[in-house]
Every structure is written in C-alpha cells, then in structure tokens.
Amino acid sequence: MGLGIFDRVERNTRRDEEKLYPELALFPTDESRDHARRFARYRFATTRKGRFIELSLLFLFSAGSLFGLYVFIGIMYRFGLTDQFVLMSGAGFVALTLSFGWRYINRSTVRRRLRLLLISEGIPVCPSCGYDLAGVSPELCPECGAYPLKEAEQVGLKIPERLRLSCEHREAHRPVNGELTE
Questions:
Q1: Span 28-79, pLDDT tens digits
Q2: How far apart are CA 40 and CA 72, in angstroms?
Q3: pTM for the full model?
Q4: 176 DSSP 8-state letter
Q5: CA–CA distance from 110 to each of 25, 117, 123, 127 (Å)?
Q6: In a 10 Å sphere around its CB, with 0-12 CB exposed, 13-18 middle and 19+ buried, how is residue 147 labelled?
C-alpha cells in the first residue's frame, strides 16, 4: 500500500514535467527520454556563452530585486511601519523575486538543452526558438537565424548522418543564378 503512494507521486511528477518541458514528448523511447532528463537537469550550462547569459540574467534579477527592495522599504516607512517588519518583509520580497528569476532561467536553459538533445536523436528542432525544422534545412533556422547543427557540435553532441546529408543535398541542389543544378 505504501509503494502505491510513491508510484503516484512519481507519475504526477513526470506528468507535470512533461507539461513544463513539451520537448520530452518528442523523444522516441523512454530510455532516451530518461537520459534527456538527466542530461538537461544536471549540467549547468552547455557553452561559455550560455554560462555568461545565465549569470547575466541572474545578476539582472538580483539588481531588480534590490531596486524593488529599496522602493518597498521607502513605501513601508511612509506608512510608519516598524523597522523589523520592514526588513523581514523586504527580505521575503528579495527571496521571492530571486527564486522566480532562477526558476525562469533554469527552465529556459533546460528546454534549450532538451532541444539540443533532440538534434542528436535525429529530430531537427531549433535549440533557440523551438522551430520544427522538418522539411527545411537544419543548417539554418528560418525563424530566428540560429545555426542548430553548429550549436549541437559546439556542445559536443554527435549529429546523425542523415541530418548532415540533408544539408549537403540541399546545398548541392541550390539554384545558382535562378537555374537549378543537377
């Protein structure tokens, strides 16, 4: 009877996780989905640029929460509240702001990593915007202009040969001066 509770909790957790990260539904097998969960959660940042962006966003959230604290304390003193109440509620405000900020940064980073893993599974998806690249060249995203295959290679993921071949095939048959080549 006790194990049923844990099974239910795990099932609910996975269902909630798939709502937060819709990319998980695109993985072909349960094994690849579990690998993607572990990979995306436990690596802080995939590239130096990604690390810089995450830390910059965290700094911006911190600066914003401190500015909000400054405004909050000013408003509280205007109403004549005690020092202890103002400091405690201000600390709560900062903690809440930072936790929401960190959750946002973490979620967007995990989604980006999941999209990179989808590329390594052979499913062409843009890691930056999530655009489905099926039917178009996965070399360049028409939506945001990112280079999905290059990003996946920079992270160290192996690109399936069929994605590479589709890029080379399109490049070989690209019109030159309005004329198709054979």
A1: 888 888 878 777 765 545 567 667 777 787 788 788 888 888 887 788 778 8
A2: 36
A3: 0.59
A4: B
A5: 14, 11, 17, 11
A6: middle
Cβ-based burial of 40 (10 A; exposed 0-12, middle 13-18, buried ≥19) = buried
Cα distances (Å, whole numbers) of residue 130 to 1, 22, 66, 93, 167: 42, 10, 33, 33, 19
pLDDT band at 172 (very low <50, low <70, confident <90, very high): very low
What amino acid is encoded at 117 in this protein? Answer: L
Closest C-alpha among 55, 75, 78, 77 to residue 67: 75
**How many angstroms separate the CA atoms of 93 and 71, rounded?**
11
How far is CA 126 from each of CA 40, 44, 147, 163, rounded to the nearest angstrom?
16, 20, 8, 13
Query: Which pLDDT score is estimated for 50?
Result: 67
Query: What's at 83, amino acid-wise?
Result: D
| Other beta carbons less than 10 A from residue 126's beta carbon | 24
Report the alpha-carbon distance of residue 81 to residue 89 in Å, rounded.
11
Answer whether 25's CB lies under 8 Å from 18's CB: yes
Half-sphere exposure in the Cβ direction for 11 (13 Å, CA)? 6
- Candidates 61, 10, 59, 63; CA nearest to 37 is 10
Q: Is 135 helix (H, G, I), strand (E, B) or coil?
A: coil
Distance CA 75, CA 77 (A): 6
